[in-house]
Amino acid sequence: MQDSADIVVVGGGCIGVSVAYHLAKRGAGKVLLLERDQFLGQESTGKCAGGIRAQFSTEVNTRLSLLSIKAFENWQQEIGEPLQYWQWGYCFLLTSDELVANFKKSFKMWKRLGMEPEWWSPEEVARRLPYINMEGVQGATFHQRDGFGDPSDITQGFAKAARRHGAVIENNVEVTGIRLDSLGRQVVGVETNRGEVRCGKLVLCTGAWTRKVAAMAGIDVPIEPIRRQIIVTDKFDKIADPFPMTVDLSTTLYFHRESGGVLIGMSDHSESAGFNDSFNEEFGEQMLMTAMERAPVLENAVPKHKWAGLYEVTPDHHPVIDRLGHLDGAYVCAGFSGHGLMHAPAAGIVTAELMLEGKASSVDITALELERFSDPSRLHDEANVI
Ligand SMILES: Cc1cc2nc3c(=O)[nH]c(=O)nc-3n(C[C@H](O)[C@H](O)[C@H](O)COP(=O)(O)OP(=O)(O)OC[C@H]3O[C@@H](n4cnc5c(N)ncnc54)[C@H](O)[C@@H]3O)c2cc1C
């Protein structure tokens, strides 16, 4: 393995490969990505549901999504690799006065940002989504450019394109330490299980493990691992294609087409932080019951695959894209709180801008600064978290 680089990217999930690609494309010098696993995208990225949507409650999340959706739409031209991507829309079912009021506000913001969302009456919901039990449904929002994409295609596509631009990707390399100069201000390298690598710049794209890795440099980045799980059914054609990713925020249930079956997800809000990513059968039963209540036709679907993975959650459900505290040359791009796949293209773009130009210009990322956690008045929680 090379013992020096201009920039070391730590972590080879969808975020790390996107950051490496955007840095290499812009000619940032020798870019070296280090991933401790045998393959790229084996952690949160490989466990994710593939959802890609712009319907967020905050402007910064919506803007990151719109920039990313544009990149996914232009994937073939820009990345030159295949991407399975279905723009079948996302539909948020609104089941309380509070949700209706909140989504009305968001709806205005989405239109201001150039989106073309649709507001469906209960009759429209029943017509468009005949598989839905309409109990409590007061309406829904729909955005056609939302949908879902293949996490493996996204990861591999960015990785291949990054290599074409000269980036080097090393697997089975775990970063075990961060080296600073004698004043403790400037990053000078990383220690790994395969020796030291000198570098002028470093960016942590270490998802749920970021708090541990940042602590190696004495900086606290409040990202917590929280288990989330998924069930995919066997082939199931009783819901006609194309049907949108359907989300019931009151229970956090969501489902969409996956490999001819249906992928079902739901958040366990009693889950506490931790690195346990084994499947919780009891909660799995609850997920299926909730799914059958909202879409009774799913009673006929047979669960085939199930797994759990880690969300990488910050206190306000927004990522941290910033310098790593007071350190020169150190950056962090992590903590997407369950939305990292859909934000991966934008994350790479703005992180490369920040690292190479000193400031992100494609999206204002002031709201994503690390310092916000020491000033509660700066925290604006993302409400549309599932
Ligand atoms: C069940 C589930 C469903 C989800 N659904 C969606 C969805 O529909 N849409 C969406 O956008 N997002 C979804 N997400 C969230 C999404 O998966 C994450 O936000 C995204 O994958 C984060 O990417 P990442 O690259 O930051 O993290 P990861 O993919 O976890 O990558 C971080 C990498 O850093 C490596 N690493 C850590 N420490 C070190 C070290 N010391 N040295 C070297 N390497 C290290 C890890 O091995 C890992 O490969 C879901 C997540 C889960 C669990």
The biggest sheet amounts to:
8 strands, mixed
The helix count comes to 10
CATH architecture of the largest domain: 3-Layer(bba) Sandwich
Ligands bound, unique: flavin-adenine dinucleotide
How would you describe the shape? globular
What's the N-to-C terminus distance?
40 Å
Structural class: alpha+beta
Number of strands: 19
Mean pLDDT across the residues is 97
Please give the CATH class of the largest domain.
Alpha Beta
**CATH homology-level superfamily of the largest domain:** FAD/NAD(P)-binding domain
What does this structure look like?
With 386 residues, the chain is of the alpha+beta class. The protein has 2 domains: 4-49 and 152-223 and 316-378, FAD/NAD(P)-binding domain (3-Layer(bba) Sandwich), CATH 3.50.50; 87-145 and 225-313, D-Amino Acid Oxidase, Chain A, domain 2. Helix content is 29%, strand content 26%. It has 10 helices and 19 strands. A hairpin with a 6-residue loop joins strand 18 (320-323) and strand 19 (330-334). The longest helix is centred in the last third of the chain and has 18 residues, at 340-357. It is globular, with a radius of gyration of 21 Å. The protein binds flavin-adenine dinucleotide. Flavin-adenine dinucleotide (FAD) is lined by residues 10-16, 34-37, 41-45, 47-51, 174-175, 205-209, 213, 228-230, 265, 309-312, 334, 336, 338-342.
